[in-house]
Fold each of these.
Amino acid sequence: MRVLGIESSCDETGVAVYDGAQGLLAHRLHSQVETHALYGGVVPELASRDHVRRITPLIRETLAAAGLSVGDLDGVAYTRGPGLAGALLVGASVARSLAWSRDIPAVGLHHMEAHLLAPMLEADPPAFPFVALLVSGGHTMLVQVEGVGRYRVLGQSLDDAAGEAFDKTAKLLSLPYPGGPSIERLAAAGDPDRLRFPRPMTDRPGLDFSFSGLKTYALTVIRDAAAQGLEAADIARAFQDAVVDTMAIKCRRALEETGVSRLVVAGGVGANSALRARLTEIAGKHGATVHYPRLEFCTDNGAMVAYAGHLRLAAGATESAAFDITPRWDLESLAPPA
Ligand code: KG4
Ligand code: ZN
């Protein structure tokens, strides 16, 4: 079965084709980073308009790269939520119309399910069960994954998502959007012993996160930076170390509490190399393996949607042609494929 996947939940238009027998055939991405960088963050209406402009040419390009035409597709998958309503609507309406016109099935997917299954596209896919650390611009969660559609949320952020904390702190440091890669680059030149940020919610049991305090802490530190002789790089380093450390502590706890020996890390912040190095280290000490998607599949992309869509469509998932989107969507409400 050959499935076209469409991702349009935020500021990336992603399209891919996944074939059950041959694997990923082609994938293309258009990032809107330049559009939103001017404003220091994603402007929802500009995002929707750009998806409208890009989505059809991107589908054509992806099919051409796979050497296919629309008639070769057996199904279409799209991101139904969570995400920006207007942006989601673009992907949903294009996917549903395409499926309807070819009389093939379409399925609307949970964005975080697509993220957590992304490492399955790699050479060493994790077996079930695994614990997934999902860290993106909109979400931070630890999920126990027993199988496709069998998810238990172990903990999540009570306020800002990890990526959001990176983006907001970067803005305070006058670094370009998106903040994650900017902070990572600057932190590499920072002195790790110059400053220490708190590790929020690590001094009590539980697997929830809270990152909004780090941003406030950063604000205070930046205000006094000149007087203290602090460089921006030292602040970036201390902030990143605190986020990485906090996530490492919670991941170790999740592995201990569940007795699971595989950790999956996905979502945009999963591209952070300091985080990757630290999680590989703690998992190793715990006798666990860590699985990451390749860097380009950590951030939003069409490949993860095509793959997750294939899993559900090949299992016989059917949905009515009336399309809908779910901008806010509880991951635990999902069921296994038919
Ligand atoms: O998964 P994603 O592409 O989109 C959402 O679904 O949100 O994640 C985007 C987030 C942004 O907040 C961005 O700053 C962060 O991922 N990010 C990073 C890195 N690359 C992207 N954060 C830390 N280090 C990075 N290298
Ligand atoms: Zn995402």
Amino acid sequence: MIIRSLTLLVLAVVAIGCSGLQAPLNPAGPSARSIAWLTWTFFTICGVVYAVTLSALIWAVMRRRRDEDDSPRTSRRLGTVVGAATAVTVMTLVVLTISSIVAGRGLTTPSGAGAVVIDAIGHQWWWEFNYQDVAPSDWVNSPNELHLPAGVPVVIRALSRDVIHSFWVPNLQGKRDLIPGILTYLWLQADQPGEYRGQCAEFCGPQHAHMAFRVVVQPVGEFQEWLRQQRQSAASPASAEAQHGQDVFMQSTCRTCHTIRGTEAGSRVGPELTHVGSRRSIAAEALPNDRTSLTTWIRNAQLVKPGSRMPPNPLSETDLKAVVAYIQGLR
Ligand code: CUA
């Protein structure tokens, strides 16, 4: 029974934690490695303690009483055993404490110079990532998609515009709360190019579970190229349909919430859409970024994320199709 439970526990930990795009035991950077190392250290030591304690308990329950149990010699021996067990317990606690301190230092001390600073702003229920360059005109805003240069330390300056959220990319670092009115910091670094999933880790309302983001780690050159591309103003509509879509966008409620740089839409209530067509998903990872999802989302986002601030848009089929064509062209 015990062995079966232990086996199931180990299998569950392995299945949940060891693989995938959102897995603390599949570390892809120095901070996450510290956390994974600490997890396994605690798991191993506590597993051994559990096994030894249970074995002693089983032995004690199964053992028959003997005549010599009350003798002074047995009492002395028991005193020695209890003393030794206490010493081992204290040593174990000291080892666990030191491991925790060592791992904790790795989480708060950035390694290497020339860190990239990115603002992570939490909204109900989406993420805003700001890349702040020298001139404000060069700032890049990338909703729900965090691009990182591989092998470069990154400092995340986290804040919230409404309630408390929590920034968590399990493969790269532990959690950090986003608190309204207070700047919090964390640093992380991704070793290799790849994609990971981040998730809000603090309950922040009915769509908390749909507050995820994608982390795209790129080689440094590719990352710089992405930044350069994101700095450009929005592409002009490439077809008559997309042009009609832009007209509808600018005349309807869309423009009162979103920014599309290079046009008259400049509100920051909702995510910036200047390069929305280049993103992999929409609605904070709730839907893939394709024609069907965009149509569903624009027509009535409340069906996908009830309570979100995106209102239903009673557009005609022609207008809706045109808006989707326009949005898809914003690459
Ligand atoms: Cu934001 Cu949970």
